[in-house]
Amino acid sequence: MSLLETLNFLARVYTDANLRREFLSAPERIGKENALTAEEICEIVEIFPDEINAFAESLFWKRLREVEKLLPLTRRSLNAEFERLFREFSPDFNPPSIKKHLEDALCFGRFLQKSAAVSELAKNAAKFEGAKLEFYAVHKNFIVRYFDFDIQTGERKKHFKIWLRIGKREVVF
């Protein structure tokens, strides 16, 4: 296996808790299934499980902190549930683009909007912040969203929010 393929496998081990568990419990089998040589398997096994898990956990916390910065209203509306829900979301999503934190935040927001475990207020906060990120960070020129809550007050109030870019002028109403 090439160095790049080995590094890609290690990246998957660090970011995918299920693969990490399987590899740590049956390194030879999982290594062979992923085209690792016996020597490569031994080299990776020499990295102690505690070190692998500690590094994987530090990557999770880094992702979580970056997403929290991009979704502060959603974070506030979910409180402690934010971390639990991000833990549920993160193993199944690995952002492919170079704007990983932005993509993480946008996809996590969509995940929250589909979740039955999330309040309508939190879903509206995720929808609002997702639209705002798409407008400002992805540079869309026109976005319209319908909301059931006033995100600023938390009051149930049906309304539309429009983001519009005309040339260099940005209008939000």
Order of helices and strands: HHHHHHHHHEEE
Main beta sheet: strand number and arrangement? Answer: 3 strands, antiparallel
**What is the total domain count?**
2
Low-confidence stretches: none
Global geometry: elongated
- Number of helical runs? 9
Reading side by side through the largest sheet, how are the strands ordered?
1-2-3
In whole angstroms, the N-to-C terminal distance is 55 Å
Q: How would you classify the quaternary structure?
A: single chain
Residues in helices, as a percent range: 55-70%
Helix/sheet category:
alpha+beta
User: Nearest-angstrom radius of gyration?
Assistant: 20 Å
Strand content: 5-15%
Question: What's the pLDDT, averaged over the residues?
Answer: 92
User: What's the count of strands?
Assistant: 3
Textual characterization of the structure:
- 62% of the residues lie in helices and 13% in strands.
- The chain is an alpha+beta fold and 173 residues long.
- It folds into two domains: 1-47; 48-172, no CATH class.
- Helix 2 packs across helix 3 (27-33).
